[in-house]
Structure formats: C-alpha cells, structure tokens
Write a structure and sequence with these properties.
The protein is α/β, with parallel strands linked by helices. It has helices spanning 40-47, 74-82, 86-92, 97-110, 123-134, 159-166, 173-179, 194-208, 213-222, 228-232, 252-260, 281-291, and strands at 3-7, 10-17, 24-28, 52-56, 116-121, 139-145, 238-243, 265-269.
Length: 293
C-alpha cells in the first residue's frame, strides 16, 4: 500500500485504479471509515468508465498518520461544546476539517495531479466541499454524497442513529465485527445487508483497528461551522447525491446543499440509506460518469 508524506508530519495511505492519463477522481471517505469503505469493485467499475480513481485514508484512520499525542475525551469535548465554551473545545482538537481537506489536495500534488473531480461521502462530503471552497481551481467537479452544509438545522441524525454512531464498539475482534450489525439502522431499508457490514468490519479491524482517531475527527467536524455562505458563492460544477432512507444524515442536508450551490444537480435515491448498496452502484456510477465528463 503506497504511503506518501503530504505535509510535514502527515503521511497519507492511498490506492489507485485505472490509467493515470485519464481524468482523476479523488474519493474522500467519511467519519472514522477507512478507504476500503469505497469498495474495490466500485473503484474498478468507475475506472472502467475512463477515470483514474484514487481512494485514501484520512488522517487518524487506516494506515495514515495518527495523532496519538493529542488524545480527545469525547464526553468531555461534547460537554464543553454544549456549554458554549468554543475556545476550550477548539483547544482540545489538533486539526480542522480544512487541514483534512488539505491532505486530499496535497495528495493530488504528491501524485503530480493539478486538478481532479472530487467525490466525498458523509464527512468526506464536508471535506470535498471544503476543498472546492478553499481551492476551486483544483476541483474540476464536486460531488457531495450523503452529506450536509454544517448548518445545525439541516442533515440532523435521528436520535437512534446518533446513539449508534457515538456508542463505542468492543475492542476485541469478534465483538467489533458483531457490533457492525448496529449500522443496519441507517442502511438502505431494501438493500441493507448484515453480512456485508460484518465483512467490512472484519477487513477494517484486521487492516488497522484504531478507535482513538474518531474523537479527533468528530471534533473537527463539530467545530467546522456552517459552509452555507461559501457554498452560495461556489462556482464549481456540483452534483449532490443523497439516499431517502438516510437517518444518519437526514436528506434535508443534501437538499440544502443543492439549494445553496448555484446550478447544482440533486439526485435523491429512494432505496439508499447512509450507505452505497451494490444494487445502486450502476445508478451512482452512471451519475458520476455523466457529471465528470
């Protein structure tokens, strides 16, 4: 697995699919998920459409750099945010969403790629938006999938989904894999598949079990603030994809994103939750293929 230093002290693990002479598509994964959550078959199918596909581990996840010197107590952090003490909360978190977004752009630089189509899922959608806002000349197109704008009134999780998200998973392999079944709560009602959730959990555990990074990524997300004003001024061609079964990021997050970005296209998928079921890959890849031409 290639790993490259993208900035002082930060190295990013990545994998590529397809011909480097084809237009680049950077796939950005979400909260605490490794790049393998972009399934290899999905990446290869997109590459077969004539794209050079790049997936990577965000910092504090997978095989990329870990920030062990900055532990974050999630309970204390959330209590501090709830109390309104933003300054103290900021001091607890060693990096921001912008820092994470810069990792993706710096990875492109390290690979000799000046501009790319950027596709982000969930927190990855926030990172993709941040890339397009901060360095629009480097983003050929933006695709924001199952994500939101950073405004508290949109894309809110249901109480049940939030409880599952924040509930720690067991540290032993068997328990960790069994706990993956909880994620079915926000999966596609029609296509949710426990066996596939367990399979991904097993692969993730064996590749790089690392729960400590989640608190820091969560902190970066919570403190990122609203991107609404910046999205209103965005002039990057934008596609928004959201599943109507999504209760982790309510579809209002996708609708709001599409409403804010001038000229954005919105694709709402009735049988998709906070997941990408294999049964919908053809429709998703068709949409990406058309958008990234």
């Amino acid at each position: 697995m290639p790993i490259v230093e993208v900035s002082p002290g930060v190295s990013i693990a990545y994998e590529t699919f397809g011909d480097p002479s084809d237009p680049a598509v950077l796939l950005v994964m979400g909260f605490s998920a490794q790049m393998i959550a972009w399934h290899e078959d999905f990446c290869r199918a997109l590459a077969e459409r004539g794209r050079y596909v790049i997936r990577y581990d965000n910092r504090d996840c997978g095989l990329s750099t870990k920030f062990d010197d900055h532990p974050v107590d999630v309970g204390r952090f959330t209590d501090t945010v709830s109390s309104g003490d933003v300054a103290s909360a900021l001091a607890m978190v060693p990096y921001t969403l912008k820092d994470m977004a810069d990792d993706g752009l710096n990875l492109l630089t390290a690979l000799g790629i000046e501009r790319a189509h950027v596709v982000g899922s969930s927190m990855g959608g926030m990172l993709a938006q941040t890339m397009a806002i901060g360095q629009p000349t480097r983003v050929l197109t933006l695709t924001s999938m199952m994500s939101s704008t950073g405004e508290s009134d949109y894309g809110r999780p249901s109480a049940e989904a939030q409880a599952v998200l924040l509930r720690p998973k067991p540290s032993d392999r068997e328990g960790y894999i069994a706990a993956a079944e909880r994620d079915l709560v926000w999966a596609s009602k029609r296509y949710g598949n426990v066996a596939l959730l367990r399979e991904l959990a097993a692969e993730s555990y064996d590749r790089a079990y690392y729960p400590d990074g989640a608190g820091r990524q969560l902190g970066a997300m919570i403190l990122s603030g609203s991107r609404a004003d910046a999205l209103r001024g965005l002039r990057v061609p934008t596609l928004v994809i959201h599943g109507l079964d999504d209760i982790l990021t309510d579809p209002s997050g996708g609708r709001r994103t599409a409403d804010l970005v001038p000229g954005a296209k919105l694709l709402l998928l009735p049988d998709m939750g906070h997941d990408r079921p294999r049964e919908l890959w053809r429709e998703i890849i068709d949409a990406l293929d058309a958008h990234t031409r």
